[in-house]
């Protein structure tokens, strides 16, 4: 049975899951400014709870932002360290796209637009279309004044903290990217053999357009 450790710390919520297609053990708590001191203990507690060890893992999965600079550096560094030590490969997914995936599964919407929190006058936008089990996403970074609701289909579901910047209803109020959904996504990638090397587990930083372009 393939086991995956999934880590998502792009927001104040520390979200970690470990498991496989049959059973998943998770931690998902809002712990502002405590990720650095608690992440490793959270991982160790979940390993103990699941009766697994690092040697039982088949891959790592990481939400790579955009989001908290410290949180993203932490999750990528921890995942790289485990991957290198255990000779594992990884799966990455932009945290903003992970939020779209959550919305699709929780609300059953096939057109989802996730909007990041406004930062220095700009927002990241991820438009995801779901069809027959597949997800196709397009990303952009735009100034606040460039956003236009009318360019998106009427049936679009909007999610993310950035919705409040445009007076749009957030269909997942209070939700943060969840590692459980990341783990399930990673299991599919593992089954397809679509993995990356440890040194390719890299974060996307807010307003780092160069990094954003690389994942398109």
Describe the structure.
The two termini are 32 Å apart. The mean pLDDT is 94. By secondary structure, the protein is α/β, with parallel strands linked by helices. Helices cover 31% and strands 28% of the residues. The chain contains five helices and nine strands. Helix 1 (35-50) packs across helix 2. It has helices spanning 35-50, 69-86, 95-107, 179-192, 209-214; strands at 3-8, 13-19, 24-30, 57-63, 89-93, 111-115, 122-131, 134-143, 157-159. Strand 1 and strand 2 form a beta hairpin. The strands form two sheets. Strands 3-2-1-4-5 form a five-stranded mixed β-sheet, sandwiched between helices. A four-stranded mixed β-sheet has the order 8-7-6-9, covered by helices on one side.
Figure out the total of helices: 5
Radius of gyration: 17 Å
Main beta-sheet strand count, sense and barrel state? 5 strands, mixed
Oligomer class: single chain
Mean pLDDT: 94
Note poorly predicted spans. none
Strand content: 25-35%
State the end-to-end distance: 32 Å
Topology:
Layout (H helix, E strand, L loop, with lengths): L2 E6 L4 E7 L4 E7 L4 H16 L6 E7 L5 H18 L2 E5 L1 H13 L3 E5 L6 E10 L2 E10 L13 E3 L19 H14 L16 H6 L2
Helix pairs in contact: 1-2
Name a few traits of the molecule.
globular, five-stranded mixed sheet, 5 helices, 9 strands, 216 residues, alpha/beta
Provide a concise account of the structure shown.
This protein has 216 residues and is of the alpha/beta class. It is 31% helix and 28% strand.
